[in-house]
Amino acid sequence: MKPIISPSILSADFGYLAKDIEMINRSEAGWVHIDVMDGVFVPNISFGFPVLKYVAQLSQKPLDVHLMIVQPEKFIPEVKALGAHVMNVHYEACPHLHRVVQQIREAGMQPAVTINPATPVSLLKDIIEDVYMVLVMSVNPGFGGQKFIEHTIVKVQELRELITVTGSQALIEVDGGVNLETGARLVAAGADVLVAGNAVFAAPDPEEAIRALRNL
Length: 216
What we know:
Number of strands: 8
Radius of gyration: 16 Å
CATH superfamily: Aldolase class I
CATH class: Alpha Beta
Number of helices: 8
Strand order of the largest sheet: 1-8-7-6-5-4-3-2
CATH topology: TIM Barrel
Number of domains: 1
Shape: globular
């Protein structure tokens, strides 16, 4: 199967955000990836729900909402109100992760869990059968344009093995430093969804960049 491409609007031109979303609508992208940062869980602030409501109105693609924030469960109603397909929370931000996953599903969204580069895949053993997707961060979260962490390939392989052994149906998503070279290796390792920021929006032809990633 071809990977799902989820362009990250964190790398879009906010002065022309509507134009960039229209480009994603025309493209072969499967989803729109939205990184919400609070300046607490990660050392940066991105955008809040007034902006996201605008994105939701314009997007014809399912929303892949990634909350890089403390206490993400507080915002389940707001994310649901956007009509989000996926609500993605960090393992490291949720001491009661199973409860949060249940609440996301009860709200009518697909629950996903993210792990940071230093968080081992093995910690997901008791939750892997309950989630729709796991997002493996291939950079330390908080900023776009960072260098890909090579150990991510091993983590994706380990995650694919865990999914197989447990009989989980979880998808594997990877975010950070994804381009044609790293993307090809990630797909070979077992990734299902590729989040791409600079590789798409800094490309001379973003639609073609999405098409190329889709055909890895």
